[in-house]
Structures are given as C-alpha cells and as structure tokens.
Amino acid sequence: MLDMDTTETIDVQVETQYLPEQSMVDEERYMFSYTITITNQSELSAQLISRSWLITDSNGEVNTVEGDGVVGQQPILQPSQSYRYTSGCILKSPLGTMEGFYIFVQEDGKKVKAPIDVFTLAMPNIIN
C-alpha cells in the first residue's frame, strides 16, 4: 500500500493540547488531545478511507495505530472543503511525537497518501 503516490493537494494541520484532568502523572499516564483539520486543495473530491499513526514517547516506546477512517468516519471532501476532528492519545511520558498518513480515494478511483508531518505532544513547561 505504501507504493501509492503521495499527494500534496491534501493539507493537514494539527493543534495539540495536554489534558491534565485526564492524566495520572503518578501512574505515568499523560493524556493529550489533537485536533486535525484536513483540507482538500485538489480539483477532485476525495474520501478518507484509512489512517496510519506512528506514536513515539520520550522513553523510546513506539506504537503504530492503523484503521479505517478517523473517529468512526470516512468523510468525503469536495474541492476546497475541510474536515475537522478531535481525538486523543495516551503516552507513558510527558513528551512524545506523532506522525503518519491518511489514505484517500479520489473520485477518479486513484488511491493517494496524504502525509501527516511529525508533531509534538508535550506537557506544558516540559520544553523550553
């Protein structure tokens, strides 16, 4: 599946937040939310069919998460349309990263991979 074309016409923006009320520092459980905005900058509609995440914490633990759609949805984005969702991630350290890609099927039937650049999950004041 990784031999498909990577598209630059799907823009992915990420905002993250540390959730202290859902974290248990004494138990090494650090909860983060991330809000993703996906914008279709192509002239073709495209349906998000799957996702793949590589999650790394500052202890060096790496997890891969793959699955259909996002938050139970497989949205179809028309040209210039955006889709926004919020999800969460639990780390065993106060600092980590996520990166990955979405797989879309364009209206012409072509599957394309939309990269998600690495972003940081960090408890406030953990990084100067």
From TrEMBL:
Protein name, as recorded: Protein ApaG
Coiled coil start-end: none
Name of the gene this protein is made from: apaG
Gene3D superfamilies per the UniProt record, alphabetical: ApaG domain
Superkingdom classification of source: Bacteria
Pfam families the UniProt entry points to: DUF525
ApaG domain ranges (all copies): 4-128
